[in-house]
Structure formats: C-alpha cells, structure tokens
C-alpha cells in the first residue's frame, strides 16, 4: 500500500532524460477501488519490463490515470525491417523519432497484445473493469489547425486538408475522407442529370396522355381493393397520384439508369487512379499490410511464432450454411411485413372506428413502415452480434483478415436488411423510393465537446481529464462511417431509376456528412488510433458488387414496376397509330382502357358497397368493374396482350443488363486503374534500387 501511495503522489512535473515533460503515447484509466489491483499491476509490470515509462495520476475522485510512453528502441526496431519497403518512413529515417501516428499505432498494438495470461488481453481487461478506458491524447498544434481549416461548417465547400488529416489521424482515416470527398464530387454530375430528368417530368406534368386519360375517367368504375367491405371506386380518384408518378416514371429514367450504371464504373475507376496518386505521394504504393502486422508482432514478441495460412472445408461449409440461414431469416422478415400489410388492410376495413375503416390502406402502409423501421433498428444490432460470432468461428489469422471477414458479413446482413425494405417499397408499394437522410445536423458546441485549447499553461492533469471526458471511440468507429456510406451508395445507385433525385439528395447529405464527421473526430471524440493503409480495403470490392447489383436492380424496376414497357408494347402494337394508321393523335391514346380488364359483378361472392360520391346515373346498377391486368372477360385467363407484355419485359431486362454490363466492362478497361505517371515513377524507383543509378 505504501508503494501505491508513492505512485499516487507522482505528477506531470516528472522529467525525462532530456529534461522535458513526459508526453504519454497512451492513457489508461481505471477505478482504483473497484478494479482488480493484482491484474492491473501485473499488466503494468509487463509494460515496464518492455521499457515503458508509466506515470500515475489520481485525477478525479475514484479514477486513476496512467500515462504510458514507449522507449525509443521499439521504434528503431520497427524502422529496421521495413527500411527497404514502401512504409512511408523514408522521410523520417534521418530523424530520431518516427511520426506521432506511427508511435500511437505501435504502442496501441503492444498494449492490445501483451497477455498477462493465455486468455487475458487489454480488451478483455477493459471488459472485466480492470481498466475503464485506453486512448491516445489529442495534441494541440495540428488539432487546432484542423479545427480551424476543416472541422467548421463555413468550410463546407472548401477542399479538405488530406495531408493534415493523415498527419493527425493516420492514413486509413485520411483515405476515408479522400474517398468520401471524391464520391461527393462525382455525385455532382449525377445529381445534375437526375435533376434534369425530374424537371423533364415536371414540364410534362399535365401533358402526359396516360395521366389525362386517368383524370378524365369519371365513368370508369374500378373493382374493390379487398374483400367484402371495400367499396367500388372511380379511376379518376387516382388523378393526382398518376401525375406525380409521371415525375419519376418517364422516358428519361431509362437513359438515366443506363448512364448511372456507367457513372458507377467511371467513379470507381477514377477513384482507383486518385488513390494511386495519393498513396504514391505518401510512399505507401507498395506497402503490404501482412508485412506490417508481422513486423509489429516481432517488435512486441521477438519469439513470436508465425501463424501459417489454414483452410478448413468443414468450417467453411458451416459458415456458409449459417450465413445463408441468416439471409433467409432477413428475407423471411421482409415477407412477413408484406403479409402484415395485406392482412392489416383487410382487418382495418372491418374496424369499428370510422376513420381507420375509411383510410384502411393508408393506416396499413404507415404501420408497416413503422414496423420496417423497428425491424431495421433491431436487426442492425443482431447482425453485428452474428457477424462477430461468425468471425470468431472462422478463426482469422490476423487482424486485417478478421476485419475483412467481418466487413463482408456485416455488410451482407445489413444490405439484406435494407434491401428487403427497398423491395417492399419498390415492388409492393409502387415505384416510389425514398432516400432517408442518415443524420440530423448536430451543433458542434454540444455538451460532449471539451475546450482543449487553453494553451501550454494547462497542466497535463487537466489535459488527461479533458480527453477522458470526450466521447469514446473503438475499432468500429471508422468502420461504421464506411458502412453508412456504403448503404447510402446502395440507395443511390441500385434503385435510381425509381427516384432520379437520389444522387442530388446524397450529394447534399454528403456535404454536411464530411464536416459533421470532421467536427465529431476533432472536437467531440477521443483521438482515434491511427492506422496505416494504402487503399480503402475490402470496401472497394463492396462498391464493385453494388455496381453490378445496380444494373440488375434498375433493370428490374424498369421492366417490372414501371409502365414504360406496357406503354411501348401498346404504342407499337395496339395503338390507333398502328391499327388505324392514324397520325393526328397521340399514339398512347386509349392505353388506359386497353390495360384494364373487365370483371362481372355477378361473379362476386359478397354484396359490394357503393362509394358515396358515385354519380346517380351509375348508382342504379353496376354490372361490371375494371382492374389492372391483361385477362379475358369470359374466363379470366391471361390474354394475348399479357404474353406480349411479359415477353417484352423479359427481353428488355436481358437487353438492359447486358448492354449496361458491357458498358461497365468497356469503361473499366478504357480507364487505367493507375495513372501512367505513377507507373513510371515506381518503374524508375525499381531501376534505381537494382542498378544504383538514378533514372532520367
């Protein structure tokens, strides 16, 4: 206990060998009364055996703060094995210290890996409440510059200081913001094109022949939408809906969908070129993540035993079956919600409340949407737990393999969670696709922000406490940002034919997203642990997969849910322009009547209710009603027109997808992944390494 009291009296006035105050690489926090003292001491002793300097501060009530600084020998050992590779250290080889981001990354790796027993690591000690938190400190200089030049709303249209972001948060965070900025910039032309398609629909709002016929169909009686208590209704009641639908479902959406498939490919190819330029400037073009992690393992433990690659077909089969089972559950939930909407509509029509009875369909849609939202919230948490469990079952060799495996699984589950909702909206509620904004704009000066810019007169004790009071970050912090953007990218591309304004909404959202993330990272959160990277990793493959799904999704929307194909079949096969050789009328004249089948009221098995606003001359007797389909009026079997439309839909879907995919492949081949200047630069570097003669 006396030794503990002596440690508690240590303060930040302790000097290093150079008579400078100790600047810790990491801060460890614990509850001095509730934590396991023996395990804590054993862990700290392990660090001291490695040469770490540890300072103890009794800062706030029951909290103990430990400042941890690694010896310089560790970083020298890190530089030696990587001196001949693209490690980004060439510019620092003549200096005594490595970059601060490298220091933090190495110290974090050592802290996470020195086991005090075979089953106990720092992460598990934190879960066991031996330690409460572990984080690197924010530093005032560059942080202040980032706050003034980047993490400000007034900088929303300014270019991001990627180099400064890299110097402070590391390459992985810098590449995220570089990618997000590039994605947002590339959204601008897509947003303009989508806006033009929308404006085209507005200019033809009242001129659509189909909308005119619907609005003028006062004598067309439609069959009830449900059994028993649902009434007949007039086709003209859907006049407003028909006009609004034409804003998004018009000829321009076909061309827009094809161009968006091309846009997705061009965006990815140009990003690959941008990424090559950026990482080449960072001297990380040929950097290898496996080599990096192996070097860290050897620094932490010179007796480290190499873990070889392994593959188990049995384990892979079990994982595949479990993933398929999870996907089946997600699809089943989507089907259950669709069934709920159908059943709820019938039940609401039988309600004792007049309002619910008269608006049964609307109430069913609203409650269905609420259930969808609740399902997404719940399944997001379930998906993460299942993905983590499957990763543990898979037993990945390294941290990077674990991260990639987790990324693929969680994105797949999240994609089906959201995608099932999109299918519900697009194929059961019509062609409306709503793009939800992911965040509300937060006030940067909220309660989570701590002013840390008082200057050098602040003691380290106050600085440690202020960092501790910021919001916590974890290994999923950057992952969550990427995942949100991938879901948005899916919303923006896969069903863009149903909602051409999606790129515009995504563009506006991302302008705020960049600054919101910047404010959060710089001002409101503890400093994220920097990580080295030379690309966005597995997310690039996710983007490529989404691009292919975008072609399929847009083709399905146009071929199945849109009226484009039936209208074209009518226009070139059954219209007056073809059958009567007329040129003085719109070729879509009569399309609505042609697309509605006839049903005899006497074939109903129950008494129907007439709508109150039905004209008197129609109230006398209704012998037949109309419904949307292509069926014969005598036996209700599919008519010849149905098969014509079906064949046209199938042919269009095949043609659209093949043309769009061919365009994507041609664009990917035409645009090189790496600029010629970058290739020549590294070719010259290889020549210099082999010959020792500087290139020209």
Summary keywords:
696 residues, 3 domains, 4-stranded antiparallel sheet, two-stranded antiparallel sheet, elongated, disordered N terminus
Structure description:
This protein is 59% helix and 5% strand. With 696 residues, it is mainly alpha-helical. Strands 2-3-1-4 form a four-stranded antiparallel sheet, sandwiched between helices. The chain has a two-stranded antiparallel sheet with strand order 5-6. Strand 2 (53-60) and strand 3 form a beta hairpin. The radius of gyration is 32 Å and the shape is elongated.
Number of domains: 3
State the major sheet.
4 strands, antiparallel
User: Which stretches are poorly predicted, pLDDT < 50 over at least 5 residues?
Assistant: 1-20, 91-95, 429-438, 440-447
- The fraction of residues in strands falls at 5-15%
Mean pLDDT: 80
The DSSP helix count reads: 26
Spatial ordering of strands, largest sheet? 2-3-1-4
Structural class: mainly alpha
Radius of gyration: 32 Å
Q: How many strands?
A: 8
* Terminal CA distance: 69 Å
Gross geometry = elongated
**Helical residue percent band:** 55-70%
């Amino acid at each position: 206990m006396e030794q503990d009291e002596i440690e508690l009296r240590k303060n930040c006035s302790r000097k290093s060998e150079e008579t400078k105050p100790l600047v810790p690489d990491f801060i460890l926090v614990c509850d001095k009364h509730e934590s396991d003292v023996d395990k804590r001491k054993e862990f700290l002793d392990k660090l001291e055996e490695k040469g770490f300097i540890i300072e103890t501060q009794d800062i706030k009530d029951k909290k103990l703060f430990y400042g941890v600084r690694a010896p310089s020998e560790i970083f020298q050992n890190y530089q030696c094995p990587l001196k001949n590779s693209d490690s980004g250290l060439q510019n620092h080889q003549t200096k005594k210290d490595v970059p601060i981001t490298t220091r933090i990354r190495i110290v974090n790796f050592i802290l996470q890996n020195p086991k005090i027993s075979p089953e106990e690591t720092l992460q598990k000690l934190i879960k066991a409440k031996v330690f409460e938190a572990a984080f690197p400190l924010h530093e005032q200089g560059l942080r202040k510059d980032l706050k003034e030049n980047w993490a400000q709303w007034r900088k929303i249209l300014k270019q991001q200081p990627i180099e400064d972001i890299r110097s402070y948060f590391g390459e992985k965070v810098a590449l995220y913001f570089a990618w997000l900025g590039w994605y947002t910039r590339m959204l601008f032309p897509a947003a303009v094109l989508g806006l033009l398609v929308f404006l085209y629909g507005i200019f033809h709002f009242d001129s659509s022949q189909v909308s005119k016929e619907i609005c003028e169909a006062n004598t067309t009686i439609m069959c009830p939408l449900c059994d028993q208590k649902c009434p007949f209704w007039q086709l003209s009641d859907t006049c407003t809906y028909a006009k609004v639908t034409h804003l998004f479902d018009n000829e321009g959406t076909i061309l827009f969908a094809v161009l968006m498939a091309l846009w997705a490919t061009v965006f990815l190819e140009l990003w690959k070129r941008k990424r090559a330029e950026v990482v080449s400037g960072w001297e990380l073009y040929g950097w290898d993540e496996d080599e990096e992690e192996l070097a860290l393992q050897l620094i932490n433990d010179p007796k480290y035993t190499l873990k070889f690659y392994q593959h188990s077909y049995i384990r892979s089969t079990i994982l595949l079956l479990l993933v398929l089972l999870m996907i089946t559950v997600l699809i089943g939930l989507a089907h259950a919600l669709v069934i709920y909407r159908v059943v709820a509509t019938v039940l609401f029509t039988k309600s004792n409340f007049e309002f619910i009875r008269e608006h049964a369909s609307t109430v069913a849609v609203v409650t269905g949407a609420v259930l969808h939202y609740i399902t997404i919230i719940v399944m997001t948490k379930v998906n993460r737990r299942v993905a983590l469990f499957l990763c543990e079952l898979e037993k990945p060799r390294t941290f990077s393999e674990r991260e990639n495996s987790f990324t693929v699984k969680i994105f797949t589950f999240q994609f089906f969670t959201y995608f099932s909702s999109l299918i519900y909206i697009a194929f059961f509620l019509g062609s409306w696709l709503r793009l939800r904004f992911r965040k509300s704009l937060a006030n940067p000066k909220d309660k989570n922000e701590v002013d840390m810019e008082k200057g050098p007169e602040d003691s380290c004790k106050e600085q440690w406490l202020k960092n501790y009071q910021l919001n916590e970050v974890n290994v999923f912090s950057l992952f969550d940002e990427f995942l949100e953007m991938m879901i948005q990218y899916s919303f923006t591309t896969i069903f863009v034919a149903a909602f051409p304004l999606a790129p515009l909404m995504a563009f506006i959202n991302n302008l705020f997203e960049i600054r919101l993330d910047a404010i959060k990272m710089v001002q409101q959160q503890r400093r994220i642990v920097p990580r080295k990277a030379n690309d966005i990793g597995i997310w690039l493959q996710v983007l490529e997969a989404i691009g292919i799904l975008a072609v399929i999704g847009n083709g399905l929307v146009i071929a199945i849910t849109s009226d484009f194909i039936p209208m074209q079949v009518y226009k070139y096969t059954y219209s007056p322009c073809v059958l009567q050789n007329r040129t003085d009328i719109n070729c879509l004249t009569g399309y609505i009547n042609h697309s509605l089948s006839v049903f005899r009221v006497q074939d109903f098995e129950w008494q129907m209710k007439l709508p109150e606003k039905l004209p008197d001359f129609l109230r006398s007797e209704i012998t037949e009603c109309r419904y949307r389909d292509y069926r014969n009026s005598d036996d209700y079997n599919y008519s010849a027109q149905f098969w014509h439309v079906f064949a046209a839909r199938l042919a269009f879907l095949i043609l659209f997808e093949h043309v769009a995919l061919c365009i994507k492949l041609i664009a990917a081949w035409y645009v090189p992944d790496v600029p010629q200047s970058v290739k020549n630069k590294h070719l010259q570097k290889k020549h210099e390494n082999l010959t020792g003669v500087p290139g020209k």
